[in-house]
Amino acid sequence: MTRKKRRLYTLIGAMVLLSAATALVIGAFRDNLVFFFSPTEVAEKGIEAGQRIRMGGLVEEDSVIRDADGLTVHFRLTDLSHTIMVTYRGILPSLFREGQGVIVQGQLDAPTHFIADEIMAKHDENYMPPEVAEALKKSGQWKGGNE
Amino acid sequence: MTNFKIFKYANPAKFLYLCEKTFIYLVLLTIIFLSFGLYQGFFNSPEDYQQGNLVRIMYVHVPSAWMALMIYSSIAIASCIYLINKHLLANIFCKSASLIGASFTLIAIVTGSIWGKPTWGTWWVWDARLTSVLILFFLFVGYMVLFDAFDDPTKGARAAGILVIVGFVFVPIIKFSVDILELRTLHQGASVSKLSAPSVHESMLWPLLVMALAYAAYFISLLLVRMRSAILAARVRSLRMMQAQRASRAAIVPERP
Asked: Do B48 and A127 touch (CB under 8 A)?
């Protein structure tokens, strides 16, 4: 019984130390675990042109312009306090549209202009049939903000 | 700890009896839940307002990710019991559940990837959620390899048990990487297990939960089969050992004058 107790206490002690260590590591690396920056952070952190980053935000309403070649798009990416112009050439994901959250990967070529070589659409955690979405929008209870 | 009623079934013979009695019902439950859930999910539930029919991957993907986390946690708990109490059955549970857990993790990764390509526009990204689930898969695989890496099986079980308990720190990271840690990820936040009402519409939540029950019943039935054969294999091994001992004793004795 004493040996069993000793094993139990050793295990509990090890678990406590381990969780403390993990919490510290996550606290220290949080900035590096972030998958993307917001336009505000890009503006405030003074990220240099040419540095490869990912930036996430909403595609601003009425800001998408498609070039005549059919492949190049320009739009404004916003987090509602800062806005950065994005240019991208390539195939867009099917969820890409105005008001949608997207993540762009690429580099700045001017403080407020971003050249993207990859665009990912961020999907939100709401799942519902189209009729329900329609009804929610009509009744004014829509919280998604998209469209 | 020894006073828990559940340890009554920690006796392998009693456990085998319990297996025999419940196995058929578990298989029936699996068949019923799985056929009902798959029918509901694939044919009888609405399309999503954004994803259309792609949402149906959710019915396969989400429960397998839940199962992966659940199985890993239960292996960690059983490893604690094995390391403290040395219960043989806890050890057999760990060994039998690990392969099933690894398979569920792989299913979650592959189906998520298939969903991610059309929705996000990429098969794979190194964000906190996806990366931590991949690490979970490696933990499962490393666990199984370590378990069998020693000549002495009890040494292997002990080393693997310690690995799985150390790796347990990843479970809360995986679960909460998309919400509480504020690690911004490409993967969306939790829909079902959040504190406010789930943000999956009722018509889609039902098939999802039925699928989760189907996976759980499937896991337990598969687990019983694997544990049963592991118990019988252990018996065969000890019988062989006894036989070999007897044989060697018989071989030595006549040489003595």
From this structure: yes
